Amino acid sequence: MTESTYRIQGATGEWEVVIGLEVHAQVVSKSKLFSGAATAFGAEPNAQVSLVDAAMPGMLPVPNKECIRQAVRTGMAINARINKWSRFDRKNYFYADLPQGYQISQLYHPLVGEGAIEIAVDEKNPEATKTIGIERIHVEQDAGKLMHDQHPTMSYVDLNRSGVALMEIVSRPDMRSPAEAGAYLRKLRAILRYVGSCDGNMEEGSMRADVNVSVRKSGAEFGTRTETKNVNSVRFVMATIEHEANRQVDLIESGGKVVQETRLFDPGTGTTRSMRSKEDAHDYRYFPDPDLLPLELDDAFLEDCRNSLPELPDAKRHRYENELGLSPYNAQVLTAEVETARWFERLLGEAAKAQGKPPADVAKQAANWLISELFGALNKLGIALENSPVTPEKGAELLALIGDGTISGSIAKQVLEKMLETGDGAAAIVEREGLKQESDTGAIEAVVAKVLADNADKVAQFKAGKEALFGFFVGQTMKAMQGKANPQVVNELLRKALG
């Protein structure tokens, strides 16, 4: 485990930051937690509201089994304890977007207990890791949304989100830097997307974080923490921590006192501001929901949840290293997002088939090309991998042409550019553009002889011991053959000609 060296430099010395995150992740489900209303993003205001969501008199909630199943699967994915008996509570508070006057949540007996997530604290060294504890995952319903910009004097209420199922994933205060919090949030998002329990789309509000920050002198007791609510991107979470930690240090060192309060982050200024004081962490008058029986899970249901889990990012990364021989860095890059891993596995399968080799024999070629060539080209164009005009099948075709010597690596870069421009296959482009690699030793020999004759002075220097000039002769030969000569043959013939 790697310890963070991140510190705030104050006037009185160094301060350590203590961070915990409460992540609200919207459960992937076609209907809400306690009603049959739809959950699709982007619907007209109040178009997806049932009588239960609107809290009409006499309406009773009925738990959605799929939402419970997805939360259990998420707990299993982080090796958490699954509580076979759990209970819903009412969290009482009044707000205009909460029709019931309470939120149905789980405080005393959550569905999922303690678990852990391992994060990489150095992107370039996946072996440098730290374990972040998870305290609990509880299931709760979301509130509606107030819209303040639709009318000059009134606020409108949209209840489409009211009753949408959320998993609240509560970490332990184990993070000690903005970078660790960012790594944790990215890793958690990746796991949720692998499992399929949340789409992780922070821009649409389906994943957001409450950021708890306190500061202390190294080794001292925990300080008073503040909670910054509803931060909706990894970058903003890191910015919140940076600002809030520095604000607290400045406040303490100037003789002030940090108060436990709820704050909001302003992305425009990169600062936080006070929203409301919070004297007690549990000031909501919780009590068991009388309309809902406790949840009791049987072994068959749990076994079904466990069997439905896919290969998760850490297991996939280790398999790529151990079975495919990929470097830890490449394995980390390819497994960081579920879409990337799926794309790579399709590429690998097609490349192995096209070249008639086992997947392990083409894995390094495929991984290097995807990470170095395709990612780079797509980044320049601002295109996401899932929208790439070059499909895994077309990528495998290009790799096969490199593998059998039809084209060189440098020509392959030109072919890839044409593939991205036109959407055509690699073989068709090579044929049309006349880009086949020249392996005819006679033709290459003639060019080599001319290059050496034109550079007799450098040949003499080479033979006198200046061996670095060999690269110059290779470059001149390749240039004369417009990059189409087989580099291996060029190297062999030059060594032979130079004695």
Automatic annotation (TrEMBL):
The keyword Oxidoreductase does not apply. The keyword Transit peptide does not apply. Keywords: ATP-binding, Ligase, Nucleotide-binding, Protein biosynthesis. It is an enzyme of class 6 (ligase). Pfam families: GatB_N, GatB_Yqey. Residues 342-498 form the Asn/Gln amidotransferase domain. It catalyses: L-aspartyl-tRNA(Asn) + L-glutamine + ATP + H2O = L-asparaginyl-tRNA(Asn) + L-glutamate + ADP + phosphate + 2 H(+); L-glutamyl-tRNA(Gln) + L-glutamine + ATP + H2O = L-glutaminyl-tRNA(Gln) + L-glutamate + ADP + phosphate + H(+). Its EC number is 6.3.5.-. It comes from the Bacteria. Allows the formation of correctly charged Asn-tRNA(Asn) or Gln-tRNA(Gln) through the transamidation of misacylated Asp-tRNA(Asn) or Glu-tRNA(Gln) in organisms which lack either or both of asparaginyl-tRNA or glutaminyl-tRNA synthetases. The reaction takes place in the presence of glutamine and ATP through an activated phospho-Asp-tRNA(Asn) or phospho-Glu-tRNA(Gln). Heterotrimer of A, B and C subunits. Belongs to the GatB/GatE family. GatB subfamily. NCBIfam families: gatB, PRK05477.1-2, PRK05477.1-4, PRK05477.1-5. This is Aspartyl/glutamyl-tRNA(Asn/Gln) amidotransferase subunit B. It comes from Novosphingobium album (ex Liu et al. 2023).
